[in-house]
Structures are given as C-alpha cells and as structure tokens.
Amino acid sequence: MNKGTLFVVATPIGNLGDITLRAIETLKSVAFILAEDTRETAKLLRKYSIETSLVSYRDQNHVRMIEKVLEKLDNGLNLALVSDSGTPVISDPGFKLVRDLVSRGYTVSPIPGPNAAIAALSVSGVVTDKFLFLGFLPKSDTKRKEMLTEYGKLDVSLVIYESPQRLERLLIEISESLGDRNVVIANDITKLYELFSKKNVSEHLMDIKNGRIKLKGEFVVLIDKE
C-alpha cells in the first residue's frame, strides 16, 4: 500500500477570499486537517462548505500526535496541515511534524498561497532583490540588539514579525542599533484597515505616541537596507 501525503496548505492571512482553488480542493479531499486553532480554521471551512474533520495540532502536543499522523499516512490516507493564517511552519507550528516526516521518508507537499512577509515586501518600497527573514526576535533585549546590529550590516532588507505589545520596543532597539533607518510597518494585511507605513523610525515612534498606529494584531516590520 502506498503511504499517504501530508499537504502543507497556505490559508488566507486576513481576507477569506485569498485562498486558491487547489487549497480548497485539498482541504475537502484529505482524511482530516491538522490545525493550529480549530476554532479559527472552522471559520474558513464554513465559508467554503468544507466538511473535513479538524484535529488540533501544536508543537506542544507533537509527541502525542505524531503516532496518529503516522498511522493514518501508513494506511494510505492524505492529511493537511494549516496554521491560523498564512503559510504553515513559517514562524508558525508545524516544523517538528514536517521535519520528522521528511526524515522518515514520507511525502510532504506544499499547497502555496498567502504569506504575510512576502505580501508586505511586495508593496513596501524597500529593496526586495535580497532580504533576510528573521521572524520573531528573541525576548532577551541583549540578543535582540545583537541580532539587529549584526544583520543590519548586511546588504539586505530585514523582515521581522512582532506583536503589538513589543512593537514600540522593537522600534527603539532598531534606532539604538541601526540609527534612524527607513522602516515599513505593515498591519492587518488584506483586511479592511490594512496599514502600510514607510517612515523613519523616529516618525513611527511619534505615530505610536500620538495613537496613529493602533497596537493590535501582529505586525510585519521591514527594515530597508538603505
């Protein structure tokens, strides 16, 4: 019997219309869907009348879930992995699962689609021929500044994910490590109140202080190399 495939399926990052036909077909066809938060994914499934069962998968329950996944794949069943939004594994749960399946010779296949970092880069106006994705920086102030200083010397744009609680702190650290660089702040991408703001760090900090940037939802911060 041929083993099943795990499909890594990208889902919308905001607007539920941003899903590919192939993603919908895949989600309808698999035995079940491994989801970061089943409540969030259920909204998408209802939108497209997808009746496939959802199973909660996070890095924290990987040890318990891996045996169930292997059993289904060994029985020739296909499965799908999704995150709350965007492309799974990219600063989202799923790495451990993909790593273990690949190392054991199982087929893992991508169903490409939305990604917040790429979406932000495409309209940012920063240099995009060379960029470095850093994801979420470490929580340690010292390590964050060390990374900014080290990677800020490279001839690339930097792409960082940040929470609303730490956005102001990140901007201050960029200023202290790299000076008053051009930075793009992206938020609520594809949603009603999406924000793309390209200014110097000092101007962004003033916007936060004056309430012109609403600190809610995750942010993509792009640091221009120039």
Automatic annotation (TrEMBL):
Catalytic activity: cytidine(1402) in 16S rRNA + S-adenosyl-L-methionine = 2'-O-methylcytidine(1402) in 16S rRNA + S-adenosyl-L-homocysteine + H(+)
Cell location: Cytoplasm
InterPro entries: 4pyrrol_Mease, 4pyrrol_Methylase_sf, 4pyrrole_Mease_sub1, 4pyrrole_Mease_sub2, rRNA_ssu_MeTfrase_I, SAM_MeTrfase_RsmI_CS
GO cellular component labels: cytoplasm
Keyword Amino-acid biosynthesis: no
Entry GO MF terms: rRNA (cytosine-2'-O-)-methyltransferase activity
Swiss-Prot/TrEMBL keywords: Cytoplasm, Methyltransferase, rRNA processing, S-adenosyl-L-methionine, Transferase
All residue ranges annotated as the Tetrapyrrole methylase domain in the record: 5-196
Cross-referenced SUPFAM superfamilies: Tetrapyrrole methylase (SSF53790)
Function: Catalyzes the 2'-O-methylation of the ribose of cytidine 1402 (C1402) in 16S rRNA.
Family listed: Belongs to the methyltransferase superfamily. RsmI family.
Protein's UniProt name: Ribosomal RNA small subunit methyltransferase I
